[in-house]
Amino acid sequence: LLRIPVESFDRLAAKGTQVYDISGRCGVFAKTDIQPLLNQGGLLEDIALSTFHAIAKQTIGGLAQGLEIKPPVVFEGGPLAFNPTLIKAFAGRLNLSEADIIRPPNSETLIAYGTALSINELFKDYDKGFSPEAALTSLSMFRELTALGTGNASSAGSASQAYSPDQVFFASREERENFEERHRIFAINHDVTTLKMERGETLRVYMGIDAGSTTSKFVLIDEDENVIDSFYSPNKGEPLKVIKQALLDMHEKYRAAGINLEVIALGTTGYGELLFDKALGADFHTVETVAHAAAAPVRGGGNADHGNVLPQKSGGGLKPRPAPALGDTRHRQRTPIPPRLNAFASVMYCTP
Known about the structure:
By secondary structure, the chain is of the alpha/beta class. The protein is 39% helix and 14% strand. The protein has a 5-stranded mixed sheet. The chain has a two-stranded parallel sheet with strand order 1-2. Helix 1 (6-13) crosses helix 3 and helix 3 crosses helix 5. Mean pLDDT is 77; it is low at 150-163 and 302-352.
């Protein structure tokens, strides 16, 4: 959004003098705060500094989960190793003096160093034949060894028994093929003509929108829960505008094919679930984990029960409703769907 190389970001932030209130929860909310600042002529160095403060604020107030951070404080890991202005943002918010700040040498590798030191304790019950030298050689030459169909390097640094590329992660080609079949990506045909519908017919669908932190997507399913169409795109800093245009484009695609697309109900999830719920007048919104739980048995091919996870609006709030059997669409008739819920009308609520 700022078009600043990561290597130059700290130098830019160090020049900042004003801190704006920017959300640190996720990228989509940060962009929502940053875009107006850019439109109003905010200085890039002030915005860069403000993003560091957003990270510090979110870490202290959110990720720490209420735990008090007491000095001295060790600052380690890549972002803190290469962005000293970020450390200053933390220090200012935690009221740390210079004596309270510990900057280990090569702090970007501190965690890896600790892992190496703990090997004897963590793996004391493992085969003593493990050779760190051979492991490092195999790791450094992984692509070359795989391309040649060669096994792990021995302790002397030479190659041992040969294996095929399939055996890098699988014991056999059959095991790999079984894995790929279980995790086969469902192909969605976006060609409207394959629906075999006559001009003038009405296609009734349900729409789900996932408003992610960096991308927005939606999917259409018919009354038998078959996937009919989908959309996926980066947010480009303006998720509402991206989804609005995508909905209008899809409406035009079906109109040109002579198909009346009727959206029976609309649900939202993701970081921007509430934003899209309000903008589009959705029937319900739910957190991503609940959406995953409802979708996994269907798209994953399993027979697991949905559980009591499908939310429903009632009096402006959400309450669970009894989960249907897979493929059972009768439950959807219990809640009358108001006429305004055609998404291609309600999308006009979505202002730039």
